[in-house]
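Practice problem 4.
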């Protein structure tokens, strides 16, 4: 009976996780916690994402170049540097004109694996 309960609990947890991953793996961008960046024309802002290039993955950004310019993309290892430690990738953009746009990020794998999810950040640019 105890084994049966353990199997049922394990199966329930697996199904719940599968449903959760299905919602994360949606093809449309997902704004984490409805993050909106408010910025003025001519100003810069940064988006910091967790990164771990030792897994063979990297973040790739997509944005509208009529509204934003990618100023820099840099990798920042956690100090002290340790193999497999969680690191950051910092994307810095400059706002070019007023309006609303979105910046999206996908994780790309060197193995050619399709990205598991897309992160989206809404950007509101004012004069």
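Answer key:
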């Amino acid at each position: 009976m105890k084994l049966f309960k353990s199997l049922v609990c394990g199966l329930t947890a697996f199904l719940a996780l599968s449903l959760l991953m299905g919602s994360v793996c949606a093809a449309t961008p997902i704004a984490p916690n409805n993050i909106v960046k408010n910025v003025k024309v001519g100003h810069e802002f940064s988006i910091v994402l967790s990164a771990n290039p030792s897994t063979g993955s990297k973040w790739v950004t997509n944005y509208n170049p009529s509204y934003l310019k990618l100023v820099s993309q840099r990798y920042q290892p956690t100090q002290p540097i340790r193999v497999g430690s969680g690191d950051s990738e910092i994307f810095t953009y400059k706002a070019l004109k007023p309006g609303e746009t979105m910046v999206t990020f996908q994780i790309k794998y060197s193995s050619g694996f399709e990205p598991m999810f897309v992160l989206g950040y809404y950007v509101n640019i004012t004069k």
